[in-house]
Amino acid sequence: MRVFLWHVHGAWTTAFVHGRHEYLVPVLPDRGPGGRGRARTYPWPETVREVTPAEAAEAEVDVVVLQRPEEVDTLAPRWLGGRRPGRDVPAVYVEHDAPQGRIADMRHPMADRPGLLLVHVTHFNRLFWDAGTTPVRVVEHGVVDPGYRYTGTVARAAVVVNEARRRARVTGTDLLPALGAAMPIDLFGIDAAALGGIDDLPQDALHDAMAARRVYLHPVRWTSLGLSLLEAMHLGMPVAALATTAVPETVPPGAGVVSADVDALVAALRRLAHEPEEARAMGRAARAAALARHGLERFLADWDAVLAEVAG
Fold first, then answer.
1. Which residue segments constitute the domains of the chain, with CATH numbers given?
2. Which of 62, 101, 158, 278 has fewest C-beta within 10 Å?
3. How far apart are CA 192 and CA 39, in angstroms?
4. What is the mean pLDDT, run by run of 10 residues, along the chain of 312 residues?
5. Is the overall model pTM greater than 0.85, yes or no?
């Protein structure tokens, strides 16, 4: 099957393109949001092919995977020679994010679009978004297994957040001073240097850096489900996380400490700073849970079923 999609979210797309299909990814000379092409910091298989606007217009496409509202009626027809998603070519819309705003106003941009299939990445998101009459499915996240790498020799917590300063309360950046009093924190991610952290690293280097830290800290108040959390669990890291959105059902008892009480997370970090063997045992439980629920094989099998349903 030929699948056309934009490179929007690097970690999610990396897992998605490890499937058994051919993937056509738009590319523009500036490699901006309208055409990033192949990833440069993630390893992608050779089945991912960059296409220019001229090539896309002539390409045979079995299904379009959409991820932003502007792709549906503007970008996709422009790139695909006038073919409209959901009418001229089968289409899936992937919603990566949890809704924002008042609960009564959480209506999805693709609501009441029967020609599309809306796919959420968590059951929490499906619950909160109002899709109207648009058919909906859930395909929970999966990640490429980086392997067990945990050493925990550095008695510090790793936090991976992109644009942490701009999204301070959403990502829990404002909580880091209190949490850091219990265990020093290393912040990784895009624009992390603005807060004294380490800017975006290649994926393999980031995984090694994370796995050297004692704990993975997930202070995010409101997000879909951070893929860095799942990667940390795959690495074998114990977790200290806010009990928000899909986290409580992702991190089982024994894999870490999950609580909406910041003081409880402070206490957990302080304890794990002095209990490396407890941290290691938690990390092994975290890895087992992540492989069972968020392994790549399950993720790709679920997506194969969705693509076959849409393409007919």
1. 2-142+296-311 (3.40.50.2000), 154-294 (3.40.50.2000)
2. 101
3. 20
4. 96 96 98 95 94 98 98 97 97 96 93 96 97 98 97 97 83 94 94 84 93 98 94 98 97 97 98 97 98 98 98 88
5. yes
